[in-house]
Write a structure and sequence with these properties.
Elements lengths: L8 H4 L5 H11 L22 E4 L5 E4 L1 H8 L8 H15 L6 E5 L1 H13 L5 E5 L4 H7 L5 E5 L1 E2 L2 E2 L1 H7 L17 E4 L13 H14 L2 E5 L24 E6 L11 E5 L1 H12 L7 H44 L4 E3 L7 E6 L6 H10 L5 E2 L13 E5 L5 H22 L2
Helix pairs in contact: 3-10, 4-10, 5-6, 5-9, 10-12
């Protein structure tokens, strides 16, 4: 692939930091190397020596003095070497990319997504994405004044014909000559935020073929990969990427810790190099302490132990989803409509008879002591209204779900009276 057509002029101008290169050399060098080059502080002057972390299982993880020195120092920008190798092994096990890929550790998947768009967007670039979509991504795009081409979806994710319709002003052959045609397709393949829908395998294959035909780069944002509710995960876009056109963003935020801020981006080395150069002049590296802690956990439990843990996480969220669907059926029948989530943490509900839920949520829901996210927060155009709300089942107890939907039902009935002509 010609990655030059995707990389913007700012990203293309980035050059490697010579000091970051020295850091990478020193970290991987043998103990016999005498380095007078790098500006690393002396870790003997740090007050931290070692740490013990107790797991919920009762086991402990020991970060000894040697590991703590690694955790407290600058790290190579692509990631602490031990963790990077573990994550590469994980990606091979879960996705088996058919083309050569590389991996970079980022400060949560959001960091990788943000830096990827900042590598790709030039002027008023087109971005193809489903609406509704994740507000964090929408907030990245707005300051860039990106031209968002909205795609339609349903319970089975993005509708391929909607993608073809959005691309209808162009021909596949235009990708060779038209520098202004769409180049970026953003997808949340599993348990979409806010819809809870997952793209079926058949649709993924169709979407990938369209991306191949029109030479689109696919940004696969998949923080809910381990929160799917099917027996087996649906093959990812990365797993079918025979062209090298997928940048995949993974996160530990839903399965290990949201606060550690450890994510990772997988894709073609040419594109990851641009992200790495951006990181070299922004955060330098993802927190080495967080990386060492995750690495120690993976070393202790192994990949099989990690997957066993994610299965428990999946079962928990599926149970939470089942409870919320049952309670919604009891309280909201005839007041709202929804599709049962196939993954993730959210239910996306259409409030019948209320064309715009923003004011209802912002003002009157607080009086009822129930809080939901208004549908307008997930629109690509901030002026677009929405009759939807998003309800999260991640933290709520069954009792709170019951009380919350009782209050929501009362609120909807009152709101319908207010909006009557």
């Amino acid at each position: 692939m010609n990655y030059g057509r995707f990389i913007n002029s700012l990203s293309a101008a980035r050059q490697a930091s010579p000091l970051r290169l020295l850091t990478a050399i020193q970290v991987s060098a043998p103990p016999s190397l005498i380095s007078l080059a790098v500006g690393m502080p002396n870790s003997d002057m740090f007050p931290f020596k070692e740490a013990t972390v107790t797991l919920r299982s009762g086991k402990t993880l020991q970060i000894d003095e040697k590991q703590m020195r690694i955790a407290l120092q600058y790290a190579p920008t692509p990631g602490v070497p031990a963790l990077k190798k573990q994550l590469q092994d994980l990606q091979r096990k879960m996705h088996s990319p058919p083309t050569e890929t590389d991996l970079i550790v980022t400060s949560g998947s959001q960091d990788g997504i943000c830096k990827s768009f900042e590598m790709l967007l030039q002027g008023k670039s087109y971005v193809l994405m489903e609406e509704p979509s994740y507000p964090g991504t929408i907030s990245i795009l707005r300051p860039h004044k990106a031209n968002i081409l909205r795609l339609e979806g349903d319970k089975d994710g993005i509708i391929p014909n909607s993608l073809l319709k959005a691309l209808s002003p162009w021909k596949p052959s235009d990708a060779k000559t038209d520098t202004d045609m769409p180049k970026i397709l953003y997808v949340i393949p599993n348990g979409g935020n806010p819809t809870g829908s997952s793209i079926t395998l058949d649709r993924r294959k169709q979407i990938y073929q369209i991306a191949h035909d029109y030479d689109l780069l696919i940004l696969e944002d998949d923080p809910y990969y381990y929160l799917h509710f099917s027996k087996e995960p649906i093959p990812s876009f990365l797993s079918m990427d025979v062209d090298g056109r997928v940048l995949r963003f993974d996160s530990f935020s839903k399965v290990l810790s949201a606060g550690l801020r450890v994510g990772f981006t997988t894709g073609p080395r040419t594109l990851l190099e641009r992200i790495e150069l951006h990181m070299q002049v922004s955060i330098l590296n993802t927190s080495a302490l967080a990386q060492v802690l995750v690495s120690q956990l993976l070393a202790d439990i192994g990949l099989d132990g990690f997957l066993e843990h994610t299965k428990n996480v999946q079962n928990f969220y599926k149970s939470q989803k089942d409870k919320m669907v049952k309670i919604a059926n009891a309280h909201l029948d005839g007041l709202a409509e929804w599709n049962e989530p196939s993954g993730g943490m959210f239910m996306w509900m259409n409030i019948l008879g209320v064309p715009d839920t923003k004011q209802m949520v912002a003002e009157r829901a607080r009086q009822k002591e129930v809080l939901l996210a208004p549908g307008s927060a997930f629109m690509t155009d901030p002026l677009r209204t929405s009759s939807y709300v998003r309800a999260s089942y991640s933290l709520a107890s069954e009792e709170d779900m019951n009380k919350g939907f009782e209050r929501l039902a009362s609120l909807i009935r009152e709101e319908r009276q207010l909006v009557k002509p």
